[in-house]
Amino acid sequence: MPRSLAELPKGAHITDFISLGVLAEKFPVQRIHEILKETGRESERGR
User: Fold this and answer.
1) Which of 4, 18, 42, 43 lies 20 to 30 Å (CA to CA) from residue 36?
2) What is the pTM of this model?
3) Could you tell me where the beta strands, DSSP code E, fall in 1-47?
């Protein structure tokens, strides 16, 4: 029997279910900085 496609509830965002701590654990800050530099997306936000 085929499985149904998993979906978020209507109006929900994935960030409603995943905490920053989980993301930080899986994607270390140093690696994020490396990827941003490699892709030319590294910048400082001006305030």
Assistant:
1) 18
2) 0.44
3) none
